[in-house]
Amino acid sequence: MAAAHGSGSIRTVAFTTPPNYAARLAHLLTLKGFKPLSAPTLIVQPTPSTVAALKPHISPPSLDLFSAVAFPSRTAVAAFSSAAADVPHPLLSPHGDVFTVAALGKDSELIDDSFVQKLCPNPDRLRILVPLTATPNALVQSLGDGRGRRVLCPVPLVVGLVEPPVVPHFLRDLEAKHWVPVRVNAYETRWAGPGCAEKVVEKIEDGALDAIVFTSTAEVEGLLKSFKEFGLDWETAKRTCPKMLVAAHGPITAAGAQMLGVGVDLVSSQFGSFQGVVDALHTEILRLS
């Protein structure tokens, strides 16, 4: 494997991924020879209030009123499991119409045997659905025609930032396919605070940041909001550190970054996992070396 070195030094790559995803991305960057710099701009986690909001929808027999649950993120699956830990099992009765559990890419790894056993004693009643393309719209399309049925949607409550359009569009697309989406704020996406970009700012001011990776639109907004605390804006950052590449994990993140005024240099075409954006960045840096 070719290491991501340039001018005799290891390339430093910052990423703004929340702490619960950061170790996975840092490991992949290290394997490609990068020096990872974790600078989370968001805190993404269930809270007592979000768990309390979810429990009534999954406590027996409430979940039997739904035909599907659609998880638009890994944290949504984790939040569901966290809430389910304190309610009677199984959540679904063993008899009834097929119940669909839909998730994206590697998020589906959390829907393991333990998850299924807690959900329903009859695994034949369950359909696990993972679309080939890891986007919320692909999730909607794979669910097909809802025919007026209800789908549980555990989504984030965004705190301290403007809610990106991803979730509203997801719910709108479900309605367009004749589903009745029931939104539940199952976890919080919260700004990590004024100083969250400090390490990134220091590297930029030293001209020592080779790339930055964004894995969601909210991360970009969180970074820009923190930049203001340091008297910095994106245009100034790029002028100060012109070599800095911007990599986006998939087209939705790229479009969101562009809307916030952050130009994107490369977008991963494989975005079912972080491997795609890391591979794309590695290829581009080797090309430029």
Automatic annotation (TrEMBL):
The UniProt entry, under InterPro entries, shows:
4pyrrol_syn_uPrphyn_synt_sf, 4pyrrol_synth_uPrphyn_synth
Q: Which GO terms describe its molecular function?
A: uroporphyrinogen-III synthase activity
Q: Name one GO biological process term.
A: protoporphyrinogen IX biosynthetic process
Gene3D superfamilies of this UniProt entry?
A: 3.40.50.10090
Which domain of life does this protein belong to?
Eukaryota
Q: Which Pfam families does the record match to this protein?
A: HEM4
Question: Which part of the chain is the Tetrapyrrole biosynthesis uroporphyrinogen III synthase domain?
Answer: 24-271
Name under which the protein is recorded: Tetrapyrrole biosynthesis uroporphyrinogen III synthase domain-containing protein
Organism from which the protein derives = Pyrus ussuriensis x Pyrus communis
